[in-house]
Amino acid sequence: MAKVKSVKIPTLEEIEANKNNFAETLQEITKEEKEGKNSPKRTFLKNISDNIKEAIQNGTSFVGIKTAIKKVYGVDVSTQIIADFAHNELGIQKKKRGKKGTSTEGVTGKVFSSDKTSAQIKAESARKNKNNKENSLWFLLA
Asked: Residues 66, 79: contact at Cβ < 8 Å?
């Protein structure tokens, strides 16, 4: 059995005493995250933003843009950074993804039709299940 780690939960007094420290720490982290948006790679992308926007409008994928940047400039930028830059800095909208195979567009009239009664369908289903069970057990008899 795995050993359960005990975690010390602070008391209400400890929480109250550390609220200001917690708020200051959150402000520092937020500041660091905002500064991270101005990383050298993002600054580089801003310098070639016109080319990136044109490439996207011409149908080039983020992977294609990444490959071109690596070949021409020798800078390795992840596709996620490029996508984030395109969406947040260039205003490129994200593509909407749909579920495959669930569309009912174009379906008209009855989807299922049968002249059989529900009792006939149940009886047929039971026969098929019985045959399937018999066929799936043949190897036990061999």
From this structure: yes
